Amino acid sequence: MHSWDNSIVNRKSATAEQRNRTYIYLERDAKTDDRNKNYTHPESVETEEGNKTYTLSTSYFNATTSTNKEKDSLKKCPLIPPGLAGKLKVDKTPKTIEAIEKKYEMLKDGKFKPKNCTARQKVAILIPFRDRESHLGIFLNHMHAFLMKQQLEYGIYVVEQTKGLEFNRGFLFNVGYKEALKDSDYDCFVLHDVDLLPENDHNIYTCPVDQPKHLAIASEKWQYKLPYTSYFGGVSALTREQYEAINGFSNEFFGWGGEDDDFYNRVAWAKMSVYRLISDVGRYSALEHKPGAANPKRNDIISKGKERMWKDGLNSLKYEIIQKTYKKLYIHIIVKIV
Ligand code: BGN
């Protein structure tokens, strides 16, 4: 567990005391970070113990308002999409890609936008992938209906790593991020495991502009509980500004484990905290699979995370695209790590 565990606060339920504690942690951490040497939060107040504390305001994060920039005569889609059902049925039976394609005739090139209104955000769903064909069918079948109902403009990017090196989840997210931005000016990136299916459509796949969001907070995999306080894996969402502010993921985690913890640490080091859904909305069904081989170096890499943050990530990413295909249901990227 990390010393800044408390920086994760479910803002809906946090007490004022918890919130203040959060920012004391972040401020303390910021002091040891060179980038923040001369940083003083504009609203900070000295406490009796000499700590600085402050309450959250959106201006603090200096986030730009994300709007769909398209020059469109259509009205913006409503803030709360009409016709959401809340709890959903999750169909885990395998489906062929052909069957799903028939069901979703309105899709083209792995992308969708609502017909009668302009979506509030353009969202890229990024899926790191290898050898999970049956999961992908189940996922796509569930997700397209889910996302369409939320009136989002979105594209689904399945980023597959070539055979050879151990699976590198963080690297594949970075590639997905870069490649999605070559297609469109996405506002929001949802980082999604292929084996998780949202169970409640009030779980809206957009990005709050003031802080990253953790969505998979109650997964069937963990008996619908958060496995530990600083857990940030499964499904999370960041704006472009937030993803850039932390230099994306580390590219160095090969094999299972740790990349999501390191990513969480980056969020804390960039002095952001994480917004969490309430537990009956952030529920996910999980598909079963054999666990991948754990990365024996993960603890070591995490412990050097802070010094690596600005030399290992989006700014050091090197890859070779073997294939980028715009299929009906998704954009399929095959990538080699170089
Ligand atoms: C943690 C893993 C995460 C993983 C969760 C849930 C590590 C780092 C060593 C402290 N972290 O233990 O990557 O998402 O379990 O499976 O292994």
UniProtKB/TrEMBL annotation:
Keywords: Glycoprotein, Glycosyltransferase, Membrane, Signal-anchor, Transferase, Transmembrane, Transmembrane helix. Pathway: Protein modification; protein glycosylation. The keyword Transmembrane applies. It holds the Pfam family Glyco_transf_7N. This is Beta-1,4-galactosyltransferase. Its EC number is 2.4.1.-. One of its GO terms (cellular component) is membrane. It is an enzyme of class 2 (transferase). Belongs to the glycosyltransferase 7 family. It is found in: Membrane. It comes from Magallana gigas. GO terms for biological process: carbohydrate metabolic process. Catalyses the transfer of galactose onto proteins or lipids. Residues 77-208 form the Galactosyltransferase N-terminal domain. Gene3D superfamilies: Spore Coat Polysaccharide Biosynthesis Protein SpsA, Chain A (3.90.550.10). Residues 213-290 form the Galactosyltransferase C-terminal domain. InterPro entries: Galactosyl_T (IPR003859), Galactosyl_T_C (IPR027791), Galactosyl_T_N (IPR027995), Nucleotide-diphossugar_trans (IPR029044). It is a single-pass type II membrane protein. One of its GO terms (molecular function) is galactosyltransferase activity.
